[in-house]
Specification:
With about 110 residues, the chain is mostly beta strands. The protein is about 0% helix and about 50% strand. Strands 1, 2, 3 and 6 form a four-stranded antiparallel sheet that branches. A hairpin with a 5-residue loop joins strand 4 and strand 5.
C-alpha cells in the first residue's frame, strides 16, 4: 500500500484585534493600533488592512462610514501575531469643525 500524500498546507487565516485609537495631528486623522494574528498554515506574504471609519457629529450622530485600506505588515508567519499602528485619515472636508472620526472596525486579508 503506497503512503498517503501529505496534504498541502492551508492558507493564511488572519484575525484582527479591536482597534486601539489615539488622536492624530488633525481632527480628520487618528492613529489606530491593531494586532493581526495568523492562525493559518502558511505565512501571509502580502495583503491589505481595511478600516471602517465613522464621521461623528457634535451631538454624536454618525454621519457616514468611510472605508480605506493600507498594506498588511507582511510577512506574518503561520501562528504568529504582529502589532502595527496605522495613521488613518479621511478627506478634511468630511470632518467640519466640531466633528470627529472614530475607526470602529478593522479587517485584514492576506495572500
Amino acid at each position: 500500500m503506497p503512503p498517503s500524500p501529505t496534504p498541502a498546507p492551508g492558507p493564511a487565516l488572519l484575525s484582527v484585534s479591536a482597534p486601539v485609537l489615539a488622536d492624530g495631528d488633525q481632527r480628520w486623522c487618528e492613529r489606530v493600533t491593531v494586532t493581526i494574528r495568523n492562525s493559518g498554515d502558511t505565512a501571509a506574504r502580502s495583503g491589505t488592512v481595511t478600516f471602517a471609519t465613522h464621521v461623528i457629529g457634535a451631538l454624536g450622530v454618525d454621519w457616514a462610514t468611510l472605508t480605506s485600506t493600507q498594506p498588511l505588515p507582511a510577512p506574518i508567519a503561520a501562528g504568529a501575531a504582529r502589532t502595527e499602528t496605522y495613521t488613518v485619515c479621511v478627506d478634511s472636508w468630511r470632518v467640519p469643525l466640531g466633528m470627529r472620526i472614530d475607526t470602529r472596525a478593522v479587517t485584514a486579508a492576506g495572500r
